[in-house]
Write a structure and sequence with these properties.
- This protein has about 230 residues and is of the alpha+beta class.
- The protein is about 30% helix and about 25% strand.
- The strands form 3 sheets. Strands 1, 2, 3, 4, 5 and 6 form a 6-stranded antiparallel beta sheet that branches.
């Protein structure tokens, strides 16, 4: 059975990261022997949404599973969301969507609108009811929008890859020790296969986030496919 899982809105302005939860789920589901039919998809939604937490991106995982694995996977996803979401912070409304088989046309339509339009929780609920998808939402229903949008964007057309390194948990919230000279060197040696690493005009490192997230660094990759890397920074 094909299963698509969408996750969104687990972070806050103080930290947290939906892609980190996805990475943890990849490890957990891999240990369960689950087959992935694609790399984790990160979908960049409308950046002008007034109630976004930070970058307004959602994540989808695409699996091929025996039907009896459905409930254990659902439980594993919700357990990971409950363990790592920034509950209690304003604007943090985590949600997960579970779609068996190919995403319905209504989900794909909502996903396209989410790239440029402002949607409501009611839009998401109507879409869920019409598509037959299952979902879980914590707080308001706003997280359902991104979770559905992630599932509906299958990236069949133009797309790039991101190589992401996460920090050890003990270092979360501390200053990142990423040397600017090493970033400039990496950018020079790997361009154009990687991009958006460094801004030479403003002399600014672009791959290190400024918030208190689990990220150490993120870079765009044009021709290589990414693997999750871990960092001790």
């Amino acid at each position: 059975m094909q299963l698509n899982i969408g996750i969104d809105d687990t972070d806050s302005t103080k930290g947290g990261c939906t892609t980190y939860i996805a990475a943890c789920l990849v490890e957990k589901l891999s240990d369960m022997g689950i087959k992935f039919t694609d790399y984790p998809n990160i979908i960049r939604l409308n950046p002008n949404i007034p109630y976004k937490t930070r970058g307004n991106a959602a994540v989808a995982l695409r699996l091929e599973i025996p039907s009896h694995f459905y409930n254990p996977i659902l439980e594993a996803v919700l357990e990971e969301i409950e363990r790592n979401s920034h509950f209690g912070h304003p604007g943090t409304d985590p949600a997960a969507v579970f779609v068996k088989g190919k995403p319905a046309a209504t989900i794909k339509q909502l996903s396209r609108r989410a790239l440029w339009d402002v949607l409501t929780g009611r839009d998401a609920i109507i879409c869920l009811k019409s598509s037959g998808a299952e979902a879980a939402a914590y707080g308001t229903s706003l997280g359902l929008i991104g979770a559905l949008a992630a599932v509906g964007q299958t990236l069949a057309g133009d797309h790039t890859y991101e190589l992401v390194a996460y920090r050890d948990r003990k270092n979360w919230g501390t200053r990142r020790l990423v040397d600017e000279k090493s970033v400039r060197k990496m950018d020079r040696l790997t361009y154009p296969e990687t991009f958006n690493n460094y801004d030479p005009e403003n002399k600014r490192v672009l791959i290190t986030p400024h918030g208190l997230t689990p990220f150490c660094w993120v870079c765009g990759v044009k021709t290589q496919r990414p693997s999750n890397a871990h960092s001790n920074y």
